[in-house]
C-alpha cells in the first residue's frame, strides 16, 4: 500500500473516531453512540478480507481506547475490533454480493464486538456494570449500528475501493 493510500485510510479511521466520540455524543441514547469504527472495520473486512480488517481493527480499536473520554483499560476495543475484523473477513463473500447480508453482518459484528468489550471489562475488573445494564447497552449499540449500516456500508465500500491498490497486469 502506498503512502497516499495509507494516509487516506488513516484519515478515514480518524474521522470515524472523531465523529463517534464528538459529533454523535450529542444524539446518544442513554449515553450509547453508534460504533462507526466497528462499521468501518466490518466494511474493510468485506472489501479487503480478514487480515486487512484485523490490522485495521487493531489500529482503530487502539485509537478508540485512547480517545477521550475513554474511561476504560486501553486495549479492550483493540481486542474486540481485531476479532470482529477477522470474523467478518471470514464471511465476506456473502456480504459482498448482497447489501442485506452486509447489514446483517454489521449487526452480528456489532453484537460480537460490544459483547467482547463488555466481557473483557468484566474479566479485567474494569467497570461495575450490572448484567441488565450491559445487555441494554449492547442492544442499543446494535440498533444504532443497524440503523446506520444501510447508509454507511455502500459509502464506505465505495471509499475503500478508491484506496484499493491498483491490480497488477499479467503479461
UniProtKB/TrEMBL annotation:
One of its GO terms (biological process) is regulation of cell shape. GO terms for cellular component: plasma membrane. Keywords: Cell membrane, Cell shape, Membrane, Transmembrane, Transmembrane helix. The keyword Secreted does not apply. It holds the Pfam family MreD. It is found in: Cell membrane. It is a multi-pass membrane protein. The chain crosses the membrane at residues 6-24, 36-61, 73-89, 101-125, 137-160. The keyword Membrane applies. Belongs to the MreD family. NCBIfam families: shape_MreD. This is Rod shape-determining protein MreD. It comes from Nocardioides marmorisolisilvae. The gene is mreD.
Amino acid at each position: 500500500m502506498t503512502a497516499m493510500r495509507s494516509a487516506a485510510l488513516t484519515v478515514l479511521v480518524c474521522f470515524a473516531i472523531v465523529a463517534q466520540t464528538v459529533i454523535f455524543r450529542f444524539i446518544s441514547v442513554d449515553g450509547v453512540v453508534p460504533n462507526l469504527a466497528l462499521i468501518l472495520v466490518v466494511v474493510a473486512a468485506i472489501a479487503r478480507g480478514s487480515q486487512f480488517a484485523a490490522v485495521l481493527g487493531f489500529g482503530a480499536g487502539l485509537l478508540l481506547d485512547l480517545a477521550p473520554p475513554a474511561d476504560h483499560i486501553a486495549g479492550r476495543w483493540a481486542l474486540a475490533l481485531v476479532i470482529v475484523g477477522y470474523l467478518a473477513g471470514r464471511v465476506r463473500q456473502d456480504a459482498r454480493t448482497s447489501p442485506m447480508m452486509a447489514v446483517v453482518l454489521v449487526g452480528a459484528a456489532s453484537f460480537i464486538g460490544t459483547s467482547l468489550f463488555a466481557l473483557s471489562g468484566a474479566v479485567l475488573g474494569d467497570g461495575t456494570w450490572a448484567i441488565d445494564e450491559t445487555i441494554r447497552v449492547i442492544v442499543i449499540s446494535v440498533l444504532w449500528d443497524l440503523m446506520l449500516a444501510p447508509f454507511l456500508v455502500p459509502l464506505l465500500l465505495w471509499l475503500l475501493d478508491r484506496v484499493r491498490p491498483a491490480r497488477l497486469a499479467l503479461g
